[in-house]
Specification:
The chain is mainly α. It has three domains: 59 residues, no CATH class; 46 residues, Alpha-Beta Plaits (2-Layer Sandwich); 39 residues, no CATH class. 37% of the residues lie in helices and 4% in strands. It is built from seven helices and two strands; from the N terminus they run αααββαααα. The longest helix has 19 residues. The radius of gyration is 22 Å and the shape is elongated. The termini are far apart.
Amino acid sequence: MLVELLVARCPQSKTLQDLASSMGIQKVRFKPKNDDCILCGLCIRMCEEQMGAKAIGFVGRGVNKRITTPFDIKSEKCRTCGACIWICPACQLRCQGLEADTVLCSSCLNFSPSCLDLYEDAMCYLDPCVACLEDKKVKKNIENKKKLKNRRKNK
């Protein structure tokens, strides 16, 4: 339920979408908010602990809690290094981008490259991108290539 709440709060996050997919979540029961922050505090920790700047922090309480610079003005301690954006799980946009049709994309349910055997390179990791495997000719071709590889290994 917590992951559903996080996805509802920030459905454009690839990190949260991947987490929901790995946990097998098929449906989000909450209305999407499309916020740009899940208030995890990773950016604050990165700024303080790794960059030594302490340029951002939590402000407010309860539903008014947010992350900002002191007094909502540009902090002189901010190095504009971008580490806060780099660590942010909400800033990593999902495959469909900001204007996705659904709250939960479920695109990353297939974590292994389905086309690897056929093309010897990962074509995609997306589900239902398994369209290349649904064609019977392609399936037979994959099976034949696997058999051929096994024969070569056994020789």
